[in-house]
Specification:
The complex is a heterodimer of chains A (244) and B (199).
Chain A (H helix, E strand, L loop, with lengths): L37 E2 L4 H4 L31 E10 L9 E5 L25 E5 L5 E7 L4 E3 L5 E3 L2 E6 L8 E7 L17 H5 L2 E2 L12 E4 L2 E3 L15
Parallel strand pairs in A: 2-11, 2-12, 9-10
Antiparallel strand pairs in A: 2-5, 3-4, 3-8, 6-7, 8-9
Chain B lengths: L19 H5 L27 E9 L10 E5 L20 E5 L6 E7 L4 E2 L5 E2 L3 E6 L7 E7 L8 H4 L4 H4 L3 E6 L2 E3 L2 E2 L9 E2 L1
Classes of the chains: A mainly beta (244), B mainly beta (199).
């Protein structure tokens, strides 16, 4: 437990998130609840959560260029470092938390038995990675930039280049899955999934800028992507649960 | 002008998409061996104290169709109501499970130990329950809910008692179908829509 693990979770600001129902993202139409969410103060069921240790990680887990072949042969594509920090809403780092990513290859093809797009698989690319943030909440992945791809939504919809992120935080109520987009990608403005986020300034927080400070000359470019999880309310008198 | 708050805003959610299993359950995606060890394969190890139970069900959309691409996660206390990591918790219970709807049938199974009652604030006890979180293509923000049990005393549970329409309480209660067997469906929309939570 870190020193931020006190008090109830700060209620989720639902205005910052997509609504469940969005007619332009067609699959959301039958998969969105019609009734309102039931809200209440968090309990230990949401304030605790699974923790994962570094012993979980394999040598290549955060290197998607090399992990599918265990270091034998690199994936094809634009070599990039994706890095950033996981923070909470109070601006504190979230250390020792699991970050998982998955993505398509440079041609926009996923290594999943259900993906039938005719862009070929890269025999040297799997498309998943994971790491655990350090004591400052910092993480990094080496990967290749994923390609855009078409999807059966409206007649001519294409996903922008993106990397899926899954973050745990320190409590089950902080659980978050989102997507990282790339600065300057013109498809972001045409994507119904990106557009489920109604506040443009919030969508902009999913767009990672090019970061020359972390690029390695003659090797890889870098993109910076910080993630903010729900924080916990800290008070002088409320940080102990009755009966705990 | 007022002062500026120094709080940050939570990163907005996006759907997990149809291929969430690549990153979270590589073996299910057809990519066995991507990791030496996948997480959440079981919430219990051999020797877990308490009653071992199996909960089976489906995640059903507004047309009545079971999702074939949903991923679920669960989090719970041990049989004595202690969360993993707390003092005295059962070391054979890690409490976390990741499971998916079957790609052909849409059915899921959660095998775990039946949790004990856990406290809320103010000394109130919550009836035994398992917290669940559901993500899939078409779900923009992961849906939180809970599984309670019909053979437990749920009458004083603070969350269930907050549900104004008492006929909706049933949507959070797993039905006993046999010894150690329960049925629980997640209904995303429509008749008998599951109560989803914002906590």
């Amino acid at each position: 437990m870190s020193d931020t693990d006190h008090g109830p979770l700060i209620p989720r600001n639902r205005d910052a998130h997509p609504p469940a129902y969005d007619i332009d993202y067609k699959t959301s139409v039958p998969r969105s609840p019609r009734w309102s969410l039931l809200s209440m103060e968090s309990t230990p069921s949401e304030e605790t959560g699974p923790r994962f240790g570094h012993s979980l990680l394999g040598e290549w887990d955060n290197n998607l260029i090399m992990n599918w072949t265990r270091g034998k042969s690199p994936a094809v594509g634009e070599r990039i470092l994706v890095h950033g920090r996981v923070l909470d809403e109070n601006g504190r780092p979230v250390p020792d938390t699991l970050v998982e990513i998955w993505q398509a290859n440079a041609g926009g093809r996923y290594r999943h038995k259900k993906d039938t797009y005719f862009a070929p698989l890269d025999p040297n690319f799997g498309g998943c990675g994971r790491t655990i943030t350090d004591e400052n909440g910092y993480y990094e992945f080496l990967t290749i930039r994923p390609g855009a791809y078409p999807w059966p939504n409206r007649a001519n919809d294409w996903r922008p280049m993106h990397i899926h992120f899954s973050i745990f935080g320190h409590s089950f109520g902080q659980r978050l899955i989102s997507q990282m987009y790339f600065e300057g990608d013109p498809l972001i403005n045409h994507c119904p999934i990106a557009a489920t986020i109604k506040d443009r300034s919030q969508l902009d927080t999913l767009v990672a800028p090019l970061d020359f400070s972390k690029s390695r000359p003659l090797d890889f470019l870098a993109y910076k992507f910080d993630i903010v999880l729900r924080g916990r309310r800290q008070t002088m008198f409320e940080n102990k649960l009755e009966g705990m | 002008m007022v002062q500026k708050l120094d709080t940050l805003i939570e990163t907005p959610s996006q759907t997990a998409g149809p291929y969430v299993h690549i990153g979270c359950m590589p073996t299910y995606a057809g990519n066995a061996g991507a990791y030496d060890q996948e997480i959440g394969e079981s919430p219990i190890a051999d020797g877990a104290k308490g009653e071992i139970i199996e909960i089976t069900g489906e995640v059903i959309d507004g047309t009545g169709w079971a999702l074939r691409d949903a991923m679920l996660e669960s989090w719970q206390a041990d049989a004595a109501g202690k969360f993993p990591g707390s003092d005295g918790a059962d070391p054979a219970v890690n409490g976390f499970c990741r499971f998916a709807a079957d790609a052909e049938t849409g059915k899921f199974t959660l095998r775990t130990v039946k949790p004990g009652a856990v406290p809320a604030r103010g000394g109130v006890m919550q009836a035994p329950h398992i917290s669940i979180w559901i993500v899939a293509r078409g779900i923009n923000v992961g849906l939180q809910s809970r599984i309670y049990f019909e053979d437990e005393d749920n009458s004083a549970d603070p969350l269930l008692n907050r549900i104004e329409q008492k006929n909706r309480v049933e949507t959070l209660i797993a039905k006993k179908t046999g010894e150690g067997q329960y049925a629980f469906n997640v209904v995303l929309q429509g008749e008998n829509e599951t109560v989803f939570l914002d906590i």
